[in-house]
Amino acid sequence: MKTKLRKTLEAVWYAAGPAQYLMYGVWAIAISGMFHLDGNLQLLATAWKFSGFAIFVVTIWGTLRQKMLLILTSTILALMIGALYTSHAVMFSDADTIRAATQSHYMAIVVMVGWGYYLANLCARQSLEFKKAGIDE
Amino acid sequence: MSEQMVTIVVALISVIGGAGFWGWMQKKSELLHSSQAEEARERNEFRETLKVQVDRLADQVNELVREKEGLLREMADLRAELSAAQRTIMHLEETLRNK
């Protein structure tokens, strides 16, 4: 049972296929629409959404470095939106909305930030491996 | 503090914090990677040294086998010579006894 758990964790840790990146892009597109920010802050959510589309494109046609930078951008945007939502939600949401949705919003941010860092780190590790093996990315 | 300032400060803190965390992660990955590469290099070096030692020992074993075969051959020659000498002595003893 322990071996199976270790195997699964290792498979997750080294899962470098495009499915994960595409899935991250899809989730960035979907989750960015959950945040009710007002005015100029909404632009950040829009940028996050477009970063999801861009991850899609770069996963298929881009280089490893482009993919890493884009995922990192998306992650930082998620972090910014999470922080701004935390500090601003109370200004434009009523108490019921905050009570009902806050946990889900925080959960979504935590997942997207953690996942984003993991994927960017995966790209960085792949890049180091390519460099070690002398393979051109 | 105005609302705009709060927005800017919060955004700046999240960007700086996020970038700092990424820098730390990147540094950790590079250190881990370089230590793994160093370990692999040391393992290869050890393997190479072992290979050289095994080759040297194999050469020594071959040399010893050759020397042993030479000694066995020399022993066989000596035995043959000894047995010829014994025959001569026996013949001389026989001749003396018959005189």
Could you explain the architecture of this structure?
The complex is a heterodimer of chains A (137) and B (99). In chain A, 85% of the residues lie in helices and 0% in strands. Chain A contains 5 helices and no strands. Chain A is mainly α. Chain A is globular. Chain B has one helix spanning 3-98. Helix content of chain B is 97%, strand content 0%. Chain B is rod-shaped. Chain B is an all-alpha fold and 99 residues long. The mean pLDDT of chain B is 92. Chain B starts with a helix and ends with a helix. The A-B interface holds A 41, 72, 75-76, 79-80, 82-84, 86-88, 91, 113, 117, 120-121, 124-125, 128-129, 132 and B 3, 6-7, 10-11, 13-15, 17-19, 21-22, 25-26, 29-30, 33, 37.
What labels describe this entry?
heterodimer, A: mainly alpha, 0% strand, globular, B: 99 residues, mainly alpha, 1 helix, rod-shaped
Helical segment count of chain A: 5
Low-confidence stretches of chain A: none
Beta strand % of chain A: under 5%
Which percent bin holds the helix content of chain B? over 70%
Helix share, percent of chain A: over 70%
Tell me, what's the shape of chain A?
Answer: globular
Uncertain runs of chain B: none
Number of helices in the DSSP assignment of chain B:
1
Helix and strand pattern of chain A: HHHHH
Structural class of chain B: mainly alpha
Main sheet: strands, sense, barrel of chain B: none
The biggest beta sheet of chain A reads: none
Helix/strand-derived category of chain A reads: mainly alpha
As a whole number of angstroms, the C-alpha radius of gyration of chain A is 17 Å
Task: Please tell me how large the radius of gyration of chain B is.
Answer: 42 Å
